[in-house]
Structure formats: C-alpha cells, structure tokens
Amino acid sequence: MNERIIILEVQKPLVKSMRKALVIGIAVVVLVVAGYGALSWDGKEASGSPQDSHAKFVKMELDKSTYSPSDTMIIRLINEGETKATTSYHFRLYREENGEWEEVPVNLMFIEIAVSIEPGKSWEQKVNLADLKLSPGHYKIVKKVILTSQGTENAASYEVSAEFEVKG
Prior knowledge:
Shape: elongated
Distance between the termini: 104 Å
CATH topology of the largest domain: Immunoglobulin-like
Oligomer: single chain
C-alpha cells in the first residue's frame, strides 16, 4: 500500500510538469504564428483596385493618351516603392462598353520572361497596336506586378493599369 502512494505522488508532479510544458508549447506556437503574421503583413491589403493604395508602389504610364490603330504604344512601369517589382511582357486589354470594361482578346504570343524592376527604376515595353487590330474607342491596358520584400520570401501580386483612346 505504501508503494501505491509513492507511485501516485511521483506521477502527480509528472502530470503537472507535462501540463505546464504543454501550455508553454502552445503559447510558443501562438507567439511564433502571431510574430510571423506581424512581420509578413505590412498593413496593406492585397486586394482592391490597382489605382488605390498600391499605385504608389508601381505606376504605369503610357507615352501618349491617344493613339491611331497603327501606332506603337510605349508602356512604362515605374517602381516608386522600396521593394523589388517583377512583371512580364503579358498584358490584358479592356474596352469600355456602356460604362463597363469588356476584355478584348489579345491574340499575341508573349515571351514569358520575368522582368525585375528595382526600387527607383523603370522598365519600358513597346506594343504594336496594329497587331491588336483595335477599333476606335476607350481602352485600358492591365499588367500584373509582383512586389517582393527584400530579405524575405513575402510577395504580393497587384495589377496596374492605364487608360487610352484609339481614334482614326
């Protein structure tokens, strides 16, 4: 009978220390997850219009606001942020129809090369509008940009756009 009491007294501190270790382990996991979330989230949402909060990071400019169907458009992406931006030659095109943006099929082959734009730098892409066979109207060109924080693997994808007219 004395042996049972000793065994129970030995197991009681063991159970208490296991509970304590479990509570500490859970607390560590919660703190690590919360800390990672705080480091990886910079307070900016990854969704929304490309013309709002992320427009200050990468801006798209066109060389003109009005083109003829045979012109060559020059798209310039300017990295005004503090992180590296990556894009490609691919773009989407939209035409305004009755106040709504309707996607225009772009029957072009794109070279899928990642283009890196360092902070404070810009990159230009030429687009031959004759290849797109555009009719007169109001258009919007959209490109995807990925922002990568230096020293981390965190990346956020955004879209930037610019509007233009085709006349003639």
